[in-house]
Amino acid sequence: MTHSHHQREEQREERRQEQERPVTADTADSRRGFLTKALAVICGGLATLVPFAAGVWAFLDPLRRGGAAATFIPVADLAAVPDDGVPRQYPVVTDRVDAWTGFAAEPVGAVYLRREQGSREVQALSATCPHAGCFVEMESTGRSFRCPCHNSCFSLDGGIVNPSPSPRGMDSLECRVGDTGTVAVKWQKFRAGVAAKEVQG
Amino acid sequence: MSRDGRRTPAPVARRGVVGRLTDFLDDRTGYRAVVHEALYERVPGGARWRYVWGSTLVFAFMTQVITGLFLWASYSAGAQTAWESVYYIQHEMAGGWLLRGIHHFMAQAMVVLLALHLLQVVIDGAYKAPREVNFWLGLILMLLVLGMALTGYLLPWDQKGYWATIVATNLAGIVPFVGPSIQQLVIGGPEYGHHTLTRFFALHAGFLPVTLVLFLVVHLTLFRKHGLHAKQPLTRPDAMFWPDQVLKDAVAMLAVMAVVLGVILMPALRAMLAGEAVVPGELGAELGAPADPSLPYAAARPEWYFLFLFQFLKVFEGWGATGEFFGAIVVPGLIMAGMFLMPIIGNWRLGHRFNVAFTLAILAGVGLLTALALNEDYAAVWVNTTALAEAERLSEQTGGDATKLIAAVGGDRGKAAVIEKQWKTLKRVRHSQDFLDAVKQAKADAARAIELAGRPERIPPAGMLELIRSDAKSQGPRLFAQHCASCHAHVDPLAEDAAAVIATSSAANLFGFGSADWMRGLLDPAEVAGPAYFGNTAHREGDMVNFVQNDLTDAAAWPKSHIDAVVAAMAAEAGQAVPQESASLVEKGRELVAASDRCGGCHAFRDNGTEPGSAPELTGWGGREWLVGIIADPTHPRFYGDTNDRMPSFGKAKEGGIAPLSSTQIGLVADWLRGEWYRPTGH
Description:
A: 201 residues, alpha+beta, Rieske Iron-sulfur Protein, 2 domains, B: 683 residues, Cytochrome Bc1 Complex, Chain C, 25 helices, 4 strands, disordered N terminus
């Protein structure tokens, strides 16, 4: 017991002496001192930078991924779009890729199609609200569209009905009616919350 | 041990094993000094309840770390596994509901405690020199906690979290120049999916809490460095942090935990008092139906403590893009900037009073906006609409047109103004009712998803969404509403308001189609030409109506027992179970249906030899195959042929075109009409 106690006291004494020994004169030299410090910071910084840079590099990967090229997707037959000027909702079904998973014929969203009496022309509106991206629905009165999130209000042709917080009317989508009567829409998403209609992704 | 923590030689003799062991540890590590430093902090004026808020926040955070790590052990971030794993935690794992419930409600408690802590620091002036930096650190900690709340909301990947996240990330996208890039980085690509979840999870459980711990360590170190900011005047002698203040802190922590447990267990207590069974999975945090980008979710709302921001976006109606930029970015940014400037403003003569007023004003604004949001959503619950009946009638009469209204009320402008005001109230109530209906629908969808997930066959690898999309009970009503309900009613004739719905429909009421009751109604001379059957169709004066009204009323040829037999036979055709004692009745009915001088004169049935074309074939009537066939193409000779009224052929597409309904969808409608869907057993 006293033996080990002595040993510990000796170790402590040694450390005290260590701390009292003079520091190398070189580091006191300001030029060399600066170099040493700079090198230490650079070496340490570089070593740490590597994992950080690798992480950020991978983290930024989504920036170089655009959305799928916008294609015309058939959504309905002309005969199935009533020509009464009242929009109806149709699902958009298409193949979809989510990172590593591929979906075949998956519902990805919805459009409203509207046709005036006797017309072969169809107006297509995206159901995605241009305000903040919620799903716009028809009012139960059938007289207008309304977004259930922040009350953005739109007329049946997609124009803004004030008061409405949305910066622009509903986004119209390019729409083609084929010879066989197939209605196809160009499925695109637009940046929400800005006045201009900018394609997203 | 001396009070200053420096080691003094301990009396070596007369110490037990424990004493010697701790001596050894202290000698090698110096832990006693650290513990002493941590516990023996001077509390000027003695321990007080008003000092507990910071400690309860640390406690709440520790609770989140502990429950979060255990949740992590069972959670799987992926678009086909997130909802599924949370379902498993909530509804199948022993104690999972409690673990998730604590995590969910402690997060809410943390936001409340944050507000209290901040309020106390501001009112007491604890942000002033030399504590400015610590106040800023506190604000950063607050933002980190709110960030964790925001990211955590998405992780169950249910409709609620999905749509709330779409809004939140779209708002980030508004930021000029970098907005779209930030948005794309946060959601991990151009679309919401796997990488939205993995990123939100990494933020929620990694980046944010690690950053929070770093800031918290500095926050607490600085707190110790400056000492506790005592509330003046000091009326009692100083005390030590341990044990006086620690006791108060611990009681407060226990109280916070009790509140959280109370919120989780209250429904169980209520159920027990009402004598109902308690289902543990239904306690604690809610789990909505799985996220579906193609399904509208009108019940979308953020967590209650973000409702004020949600409501704030509605304030800027008519401001266009400027309004949204202001509401989502500029105003919240200015408020945060104002809070960061408090320590500097506080140096001015009236600065402190300004700061207190500023903070109270913000809290009042938050409270007001939250109340407005709730009032908008729940107006239908408390607004009495009976007084608005006239306004409602006038709205329908004039189509909501103000000039027509003046004419309608006989030019009385005063009255027109009153009515127009009432229209606004009506609109508010209607929107609120839409929201409440959407919440009800969301609850029903969630309950069905949970029921399906518990099937013995379990969830397929493609995930819960695929299972729901192939579920007749969830999809049937939606498809029917979209494609069939513009003509057909589907309403229990005994239900309230059923008569009105049936009267305005232009085709048969399909409720209970294939049942004995439905068939009995068809064969009832009083009903066959009514709106529930052929009344509003081109067949109103057709052969079938004629037959039922003239031939079936001949009691000699068609005694009641014959009609009973036909009804039984047709129900059996539709696949209804035939009890042993009715077997002969069904047999008799089949003979009557097949007979060429009775039904078989027009209808093909089994091998009665009648050519199809004049009336729908009755073999397998009301069965799945028969229903799928008639929905797909009622103009087929097997059904109405060229006597088909207005029913579209839902399964028929022109060359290269698309049919209104896919064969899967037609199957879902048929199954739903027949009431064929998964039902859990043993409940």
